[in-house]
Each structure stands twice: as C-alpha cells, then as structure tokens.
C-alpha cells in the first residue's frame, strides 16, 4: 500500500502525539516538529505509509534524545488490559465459538493505538466490538486453513493489545498448532517489544520472537534472517493492525497464508479495504 497526500497530516500528528508523551516545552516541541518537516518532502512515495512514518518518528526521537517516548504509556496500556483479562477469558469460555470470540476481542484491543488516538475507552470499545461482526469476514476459510496448517505466526501490533492477542494465541493452541508471536526489535510508537511480551506473560507454549526490525508494520527487507525463516515456514500468518496491513497488503494478494485482522482507523485504509471508517475486518487481501 503506497502513500497518498492524506498520509502527510498523519505523519505530523504522530510526531505531535510522540512529543505529548514527554515533558518538553512547547517551544522545544515546535523546534522538533520543524526539524522533521524537511524529511516529508524527501520521502519516497513508493514506500508504504508505515515505512515513511518510521523515518519521521526516528528523526523526532533523535531530536528528543529519548529512545522510547511511549515507555510509560505502554506500561499503562498493559496494566489496563491485564485488569480486563479475567472477564475477557470468561467471555471466551462461555462463547459458542471461542476462537471467533478471541478474534473479535483481539480486534477490540486494536483500539489501543496511541499513535492515532490519544484518548480511548477500552471497555467501551470491547463492548462495541463484540456487538458487531466483521465487515469483511473470511473466518470460514480461516477455519478450513487451520485444518491444513501446523504452524501459525501472529504479527503483533501494540502494547496493551498484546494482552488480547495472548487470548487469541491460547485459543489457537487448542487446535494443536505451533504458535509463534512476533514483536518489534526496537521501540517505535507504542508497538509491542520483547519487554512488553515478558511483562504481560506472553510465553510458555507460545513462542515469542523479535522480528529484528524497528519499523512500524512488518517490512520484510528490514527483518532478521531468523524471523524470515519463521515467516516463510508458517502455514498461516495473522497480521494484526493497520501498519502491518499497510506493509503486507500487496504481498497478501499472492500469499494466501496471510489473514489481516484490524480496525480501519483511517479513510485511506478503509477505502483500500472496501469498508467504512472504524469497521473491523478479518480477511485475506
């Protein structure tokens, strides 16, 4: 998925949200924003929005002198999600279709994206998500694919959300699958890292790996050889969130292993998916 002119305001908004995680002065914030603006004119329009966003955000972090501006916010997101864990487990256990329920909960968790939304109501989002169905829904074909796969790879997205992903991974284990969960190697926005995975207890039978990259989304050419081996050998791949969709959507047209699980949080992504803004999808490309 290539960038459009509408992506440019989002680059600036993400930078502002990053600066809002710190205690710098407004004058310093303006200085940093101005320091990132020259990069925008030189961005490659053939790159994905996730790649270009990363370039801008890395520059902002350099000017800030802070490697992980979202560190505190990520812990707060994880803590909030962990508080909800018991009631979510109960909903899955009581569901007529626990796997489908865990997929819906994982999408509900996708609202915890501070790169786009500064304020969010997780509990309300979960209730709204569980009251709706996927606008694009390839669940039936996914169930059929499960019978043929031995290994499944989940491409993680955000902190906080990783707690909901853990419930999905646990359900997939019930199908006798080997489940691997991939996180970022370096901090970028509020994306989950190995530190977050350890904090929320993701592990045990669920293998957790780094993708070797610090880019938003999954930019395969920037990922480690070890991750690529896992990616290529997986029978199924669940791509979580919007940035992963942006970076893998073109590949998904030829790779039928790829299923995208997300909420469309911007008009361009929604249009690309053929859905309305904020609608939820679980689909092949």
UniProtKB/TrEMBL annotation:
<dbReference type="Pfam" id="PF01937">
    <property type="entry name" value="ARMT1-like_dom"/>
</dbReference>
<feature type="domain" description="Damage-control phosphatase ARMT1-like metal-binding">
    <location>
        <begin position="6"/>
        <end position="281"/>
    </location>
</feature>
<dbReference type="InterPro" id="IPR002791">
    <property type="entry name" value="ARMT1-like_metal-bd"/>
</dbReference>
<protein>
    <recommendedName>
        <fullName>Damage-control phosphatase ARMT1-like metal-binding domain-containing protein</fullName>
    </recommendedName>
</protein>
<dbReference type="InterPro" id="IPR014444">
    <property type="entry name" value="PH1575-like"/>
</dbReference>
<dbReference type="InterPro" id="IPR036075">
    <property type="entry name" value="ARMT-1-like_metal-bd_sf"/>
</dbReference>
């Amino acid at each position: 998925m290539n960038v459009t002119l509408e992506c440019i305001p989002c680059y600036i908004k993400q930078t502002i949200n990053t600066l809002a995680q710190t205690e710098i002065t407004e004058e310093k914030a303006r200085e940093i924003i101005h320091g990132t603006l020259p990069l925008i004119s030189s961005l490659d329009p053939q790159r994905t929005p996730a790649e270009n966003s990363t370039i801008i955000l890395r520059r902002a972090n350099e000017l800030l002198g802070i490697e992980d501006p979202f560190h505190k916010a990520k812990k707060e997101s994880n803590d909030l999600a962990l508080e909800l864990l018991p009631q979510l487990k109960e909903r899955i256990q009581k569901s007529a279709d626990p796997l489908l329920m865990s997929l819906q909960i994982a999408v509900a968790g996708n609202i915890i994206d501070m790169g786009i939304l500064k304020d969010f109501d997780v509990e309300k989002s979960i209730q709204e998500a569980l009251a709706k169905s996927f606008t694009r829904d390839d669940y039936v074909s996914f169930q059929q694919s499960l019978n043929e796969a031995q290994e499944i790879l989940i491409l993680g997205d955000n902190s906080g959300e990783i707690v909901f992903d853990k419930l999905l991974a646990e359900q997939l284990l019930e199908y006798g699958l080997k489940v691997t969960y991939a996180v970022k190697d370096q901090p970028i926005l509020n994306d989950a890292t190995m530190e977050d995975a350890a904090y929320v207890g993701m592990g045990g039978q669920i293998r957790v790996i780094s993708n070797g990259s610090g880019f938003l989304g999954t930019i395969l050419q920037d990922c480690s050889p070890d991750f690529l081996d896992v990616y290529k050998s997986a029978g199924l791949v669940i791509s979580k969130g919007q940035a992963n969709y942006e970076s893998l959507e073109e590949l998904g047209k030829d790779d039928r292993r790829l299923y995208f699980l997300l909420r469309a949080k911007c008009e361009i992504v929604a249009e690309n998916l053929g859905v309305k803004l904020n609608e939820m999808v679980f689909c092949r490309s």
